[in-house]
Amino acid sequence: MKLNFLFQNKFKKIGWFILIPSAIIGLITLIYDYEPSFFDFNVPAIFVGEILSDGKKTFRMVNNNVLNEILGVLIIISSLLVAFSKEKSEDEYISKIRLESLVWAVYFNYAILLLSFMFIYDLSFLWVMIFNMFTVLLFFIVRFNWQISKLKKSAYYEE
């Protein structure tokens, strides 16, 4: 029984179409600390960090700028589509490259995380943890596409 948990190839283009602008806008909003007010909404919160006027910290509506949440969701979903969509010609060797790239990305990501635990503190460490949500997928995408491009170049030179 062969189980394949990959998306169809057409989802890779959709993923790239969403990922690139989302990542660019996300970096711009992060660097310039830009939060346009038209993204301010009352949203449900399970937990609020500060104690509010009625003394409650849980299960309430809070006013929040949801731009970061929207961009985070778009980056995660589009990264999953890019990372786990089939190639046009998916064979055993590409599956092997996919597995090796995933293992490499996890090792590399956790090596960075271990170094961060040892050498980065306070609010800077929070930023490392926030980026860490995205980096496993991004490291995988970079390594997998790099390996696929090497494979295509070697196949081109063999012809």
Please provide a brief summary of the model.
Keywords: Membrane, Transmembrane, Transmembrane helix. The protein is mainly alpha-helical and 159 residues long. It is 65% helix and 10% strand.
What does the model show?
By secondary structure, this protein is mainly α. It folds into 2 domains: 1-86, no CATH class; 88-159, no CATH class. The protein contains 4 helices and 2 strands. Strands 1-2 form a two-stranded antiparallel ribbon. Helix 3 runs antiparallel to helix 4 (122-158). The two termini are 35 Å apart.
Estimate what percentage of residues fall within beta strands.
5-15%
User: Please, what is the average pLDDT?
Assistant: 90
Report the C-alpha radius of gyration, rounded.
Answer: 20 Å
Number of helices: 4
What form results from the Cα inertia axes? elongated
How many domains? The number is 2
Lateral strand order in the biggest sheet: 1-2
Number of strands: 2
Helix content: 55-70%
Topology as H/E string? HEEHHH
First-to-last CA distance: 35 Å
Largest sheet features: 2 strands, antiparallel
Helix/sheet category: mainly alpha
Query: Which residues sit in consecutive blocks of at least 5 with pLDDT less than 50?
Result: none
